[in-house]
Structure formats: C-alpha cells, structure tokens
Specification:
The protein is mainly α. It has 27 helices and 7 strands. The chain binds a DNA duplex (14 and 14 nucleotides) through helix 8, helix 14, helix 17 and helix 25.
Length: 580
DNA sequence: GTCTCGTTGCTGTA
DNA sequence: TACAGCAACGAGAC
C-alpha cells in the first residue's frame, strides 16, 4: 500500500499500528548522505522491507535562529548553509516521491527523536551512513545501544568517504598517517573502485504508518522562524540534482579535468570559479565522493595524460580522506590544547582585531573582499581561504586559529569538521605544514592573479572606482585620487595602521573608538609573527610539545616584552611608511 | 643520526 | 615566464 498520498494530512490521522506490526519495516535515517545515488544504507533499508521510513530530524540547535550569533543563522550555522541544507532536503524529498516514498521531517534532539521512532514504528532495521565526526560518533553510540537492546538490526556503512578511516589507521600501524604521501600507501586503491556503484533506484517500498510522531514537510527559512529575511543571491543551490548537474558540467570538459592543478587555480575568479565548487555537495553527501572518484577515473582512462595527486582533481578527494583519517585518529583534533599533533603557540586574544577580520575591515582590500565573499556566498576559493587564514594567524594578526575556524565553520556552506580543522591547523603552521616564513602577502598575492582588482571591485564596491595602481593598497592613493574615486581612506574604507604603535602613542581607548581605523602594517606584523613562531617552535622542541598553560603564559609575556624593546624601530618605520 | 621531500611564498633578476 | 636566493621546519625512510 502506497501511503504517500495520505501523508500530507497531519500524522495523527494516519495511526494504524497493525500496518507497521504486520510487515517488516526499516528506518533510513538521513543526516549527511542526502542522495539516492550510491547510498548503500538506503539500498539495504529497502531490501526485503515492506515499509521504509526515510527520516530527517531537524535539530533546533542547528536550524533555528539565534539572535545572539554574529551573523544571521542558528547557534551553529549561518543562514546560507541552513538554506543550502533545506534546498537539499526538498530535492531529496522530490526524488523520494518519484520513487514512491517521501522524506519524513521530524523535529527535536535527534537521538531522542530517533529512539522514539524506533519505539513507535516497530521496525526491524535501522540504516544510516557511518559518520566519523565526534558529534555523530557520540549520537550513534546512544542510538545503537537502544537499537541493540530492542533487537533492531543496525546497518551503518562507510559511504561518505573513499576509505574507512579506521582501516587506514589499522594498516598504518594504529596511527593516522601525518603526511599526504604516507597516507597514499596504506590507502591504495579503494576496494569498490573497479566495480560499478549503484547509481539509480527504480522504486522504494512505501512509507509505513507514522503513528503519533509529528511529521512535517521540509520547512522554509520562514517556517524556521527567520521571518521575511532578505536573502542574498548566491550562485550555489543545494541538492543532489544540482550536484549531479554540476558534476556532469565539470567532467564534460575532459581537457580541463585532465590538466587540473589545484595550486594553479585563480582565487580571484568569481564569475566562473577555478574549481568545481562541488565541496558543499560533498559536505552534505548530495554527491557521493566515490561516484565522483569513479567519474574522474573514467575521464583519466580516455585521455593521453593527466595530472596526478596531490594536485589533480582525484587528488582533492584523497586530501578529503586524508583529513578525515587524521581527524578520526586524533583526540582533540579541533583544539590546540590536548591535541598531540598541534604546536602549542601563545596566540594573542583580541576581540577587536578578530571582529575587524571577520567583518571585512582590516584595511587590506584583498583580505576584506574575501571575507565579504565568505559572508555573501558562503564559499570562496581555496587559496583565498589560505590568504585570510594566514593573515589572521601566523601572517599578521597572530590570533588563535580556533577563532578563525569558528568563523569558517559557521559561514561556509561546505564547512566540514575534519577538513576545516585540518586546514586551519595547516595554515596556522600548527600541524602538517611548518614553513612559517612563507607568508601570503595581503597585497601581492591577490595582485598576481588579478592586477586590475576586479574581484575587489565586485565584493567591495566602495573601492570600485579606485585606480588599479592603488586598489590593493588604497592608503597610498593621493588625496585627489581618493576624492575622484569617491573613497576617502579612513572615512569610507579603513586604513591599515600599526596597532601596537598607535596603542603606545594614543592609548588603547582611542583605538576602540576609531572604527574605521584598522589593523596592521603587513611588513612589520609578519616579521613579528615569524619571530614569535620561531620562539614558540623552539620551546615546543625543547619541551617535546608538552607545554603547560604556565609555559605558554610565560612565553607570551616574554614575546610581549621583546616587542616593547623595538618601539624606536617601529616609530621610524611609521615615519617612512606610506601613511601620513 | 642523516637525508629527502613536501599541493599552493616572496622578491629580484634575466 | 622561470629560476635563484631567502630562511628553514618536520615526517618518514634509511
């Protein structure tokens, strides 16, 4: 019996316990993996089942508005990602309906809701994609415990990544490999690589009786309590259909796929981004990474030569698995403290500087334009992420990578726990990458790709009429040029200043009142950062990475004292600098 | 202990 | 556009 017609009625009207009790039912619990293609959990749920309950639980913490957050959205996610998720759910629901099923939306704490469904619906199987994120690890233990005690079979296959991180760690002697190359060896070829994946399903068993569980349609942004909030146009729409369309477009250009080299991409390309922009679809599992990998292998087979990992497109999927593996095998991966892989560094704590970075008013147009793109689109090119992450941490501001990680985690539509933390560890030279003398310039790095500054003009329209000679360093533009460009630096757009020097000369209070005065001179700041990192590295080496809070505090004090020894040099620098 | 190598730096020079 | 020089780290292999 097909129940999808009657499900539009309130759930109470559907109560028919006999129906669920008389057949064998399964719950397909969607969390990530919001797709039909290559979904082994869904496949198993429907096998031999009279009924399948496709469930998604809306967790209010993740979805409902938090007025205290620094951007529109919930406590945990910015509005762009919430919208992307809702679009993905609508698309999934549409696909399920075509197959004779539908998506059942429930609300509440996911563990409690799931256990209630298990009790109410009398199913024999619970199926969901395995997830290595700590949140799901903890949640799944609870749900599995209940299911096991209730005699319900649990099927939780690995299908979010190419490999099972636990397998790689085991093959690597119980420890996660810490370099990409040493990851490739135990990884080898994926076991499923040469056999076809199930990419389509012709039909699904009907949904069973939902009893007294409250089921709703996929809510809109408005339904979630955001009112009639005006949504910025963004070029990425959520959902499996969109993911497969985007994948098809990307791989149809075989030459582009074959020649893809990630580090050569242009971070300032925004009309047509230099990458596939499939990351948000991989994040939510709208696209199977395994299917993507197979599609790439098909292209590689049919071209004479192609690029290889780590720079190739397939190499990008392996990077994803690399970070998943290290993250899974490392306690406290998302923190400096208690994280064995992470250098212990006495980062500064400064809310004003953090806010200037987050709110795109550092005074460096390249940095600020990237942060605007992050806010507006929830996505920016990988190298653009590098620029702003380096600037926040080891390049200029010397602020804690965890603060930047939090901002990315909230605002990115593709924010992924393992990859985001891994990249912040990398960029801050806290782990994986240690060449702290290689610093991205907030001026010349962007200029190299986009000398005219079109990217800046687009995302920072206040600078749209600034001549290209000055657009990366607008504080150097003569007053006449600034007037002509209708952008007075220090009034319409911030100028970068040497914060420690100003603090000494004018007092800290003044700084906090000058909202249009921002951040640092890159030259002096980056030198300071290098000096601090050299000292922190030396102490980490001396103490074998076992730094206590007291060690860090002492080092911080020492670094601050050393900084005070240089005011004369600094003042000299300011006199000869461009700012007057 | 020594050596090689590492997805993605910058500047100056030819 | 390509390369040297800059300053220089750690994981992993041996």
């Amino acid at each position: 019996m097909q129940l999808s017609l009657s499900l539009s009625k309130p759930a109470q009207h559907l109560k028919n316990p006999l129906m669920a009790a008389s057949g064998s039912g399964s719950i397909m619990w969607f969390r990530k993996g919001l797709r039909i293609h290559d979904n082994p959990a869904l496949e198993y749920a429907s096998k031999g089942s009279d009924f399948v309950y496709p469930v998604f639980v809306i967790d209010p913490h993740y979805m409902e508005p938090d007025p205290k957050a620094f951007s529109p959205g919930s406590r945990l996610a910015g509005l762009n990602r919430i919208r992307f998720l809702l679009e993905s759910l609508v698309d999934l629901d549409t696909s399920l309906k075509k197959l004779g099923s539908r998506l059942l939306i429930l609300k509440g704490e996911p563990g409690q809701v799931l256990i209630r469904c298990l009790k109410e619906w009398g199913v024999k199987k619970l199926c969901f994609e395995y997830d290595t994120d700590p949140y799901y690890q903890a949640l799944d233990i609870r749900v599995k415990e209940y299911a096991s005690a209730a005699g319900i079979e649990v099927f939780s296959p690995v299908s979010h990544t190419l490999f099972n991180p636990a397998d790689i760690i085991q093959r690597n002697g119980g420890k996660p490999p810490l370099t990409y190359q040493s990851f490739l060896k135990p990884a080898g070829q994926p076991s499923w690589a040469s056999s076809p994946l199930l990419t389509s399903i012709s039909s699904l068993p009907p949904v069973g009786d939902v009893g007294s569980c409250e089921i709703s349609e996929v809510p809109s942004i408005k339904d979630l309590g955001y009112g009639d909030i005006e949504q910025e146009w963004i070029p990425f729409r959520g959902g499996e259909s969109e993911a497969l369309k985007r994948l098809k477009e990307s791989i149809s250009d075989k030459e582009w796929v074959a020649n893809f080299e990630k580090p050569k991409g242009n971070p300032s390309a925004f009309v047509k981004p230099a990458t596939t922009v499939l990351s948000p679809y991989l994040k939510f599992g709208c696209l199977s990474s395994r299917y993507f990998y197979q599609c790439l292998q098909d292209v590689y087979k049919n071209v004479q030569k192609h690029t290889s990992p780590p720079v190739s497109l397939a190499g990008q999927l392996l990077w994803r698995d690399f970070f998943y593996t290290v993250a899974f095998g490392t306690p406290n991966f998302d923190r400096m403290e208690g994280n064995k892989l992470c250098k212990q560094i006495p980062w500064n704590d400064d809310d004003e500087l953090l806010a200037a970075w987050r709110e795109a008013r550092t005074g460096y147009p390249w940095i600020d334009a990237i942060m605007v793109q992050l806010r507006k689109w929830g996505w920016m090119h990988h190298l653009a992420r590098h620029s702003v992450a380096c600037f926040l941490t080891r390049g200029d501001l010397f602020l804690h990578w965890e603060r930047g990680r939090d901002v990315f985690e909230r605002l990115l539509i593709d924010s992924d726990w393992a990859i985001n933390n891994g990249n912040w560890l990398w960029l801050s030279c806290s782990s994986f990458f240690y060449q702290y003398n290689r610093i991205y310039s907030p001026i010349s790095f962007g200029k190299k790709y986009d000398p005219n500054g079109d990217y800046i003009r687009h995302f920072l329209p206040v600078l749209k009429d600034m001549p290209k000679e000055y657009i990366y360093e607008p504080w150097t533009a003569p007053p006449g040029i600034q007037r002509k460009a209708k952008c007075i630096i220090g009034r319409d757009y911030p100028k970068p200043v040497d914060l420690p020097c100003i603090c000494m000369q004018l007092g800290v209070i003044l700084i906090f009142t000058l909202m249009l005065v921002s951040v640092v001179y890159h030259d002096s700041a980056s030198k300071e950062c290098k000096r601090k990192l050299a000292e922190a590295y030396a102490l980490n080496q001396k103490l074998n990475g076992q730094l206590s809070q007291e060690d860090l505090d002492n080092l911080r004090r020492k670094l601050e004292q050393d900084e005070d020894l240089e005011p004369k040099i600094r003042r000299q620098r300011q006199k000869v600098g461009h700012l007057t």
